[in-house]
Amino acid sequence: MNFTSRQKIEVQGVFRLLSFVSLGLIFTVIIVGAFLSARGQGLACSDWPLCPTGFSLSPGGEYFIEYVHRIIALIGAVSVYVTTIYSINRFFKARTAATITSIVVSFQIVIGMLVVLSKLQPLIVAVHTGVGVLTLALALLTFILSYPVITGDPDSNKASSEVN
After folding, report:
1. Residue 86 located in a structural domain
2. 74-92 per-position pLDDT tens digit
3. What global pTM score does this model have?
4. Tens digits of per-residue pLDDT, 121-137?
5. Do the domain assignments include residue 37?
6. Which H helix or E strand runs over 122?
7. 158: nearest Cα among 2, 1, 6, 30
């Protein structure tokens, strides 16, 4: 697939936005998770993936913050997957980082389930937190790789060299 210079710049802009949104959502999930943990509400919802009230999401309810955590995590995971899919054919430089991020996010979802089902076993909670930080680092790497590399060779700094 051949792109014009303008199309290549637009592809980079879309990828950069997708990777930034993913990064922001992952950061938010970590912050909300830390808030839940600090308040001692890590098991506010003892069921997975839904709370005992099903899809009922009432602000101020005992499950509200945990629901927010899970919803942001879901949206963040979808954003990471979309970023990866977008990178496969359009943004080769960040493809590996985006793909690894998707794999780690999938692993993190399973660990999150185990955290709930194990009733907050400390080792599983620690692994969940560590994998969350790893996910954030990988999302940051993906975002950084969305920018062109500046070298001493002016011809290699063109946006057109980034996308086929």
Report:
1. yes
2. 999 999 999 999 999 877 7
3. 0.84
4. 999 999 999 999 999 99
5. yes
6. helix 122-144
7. 6
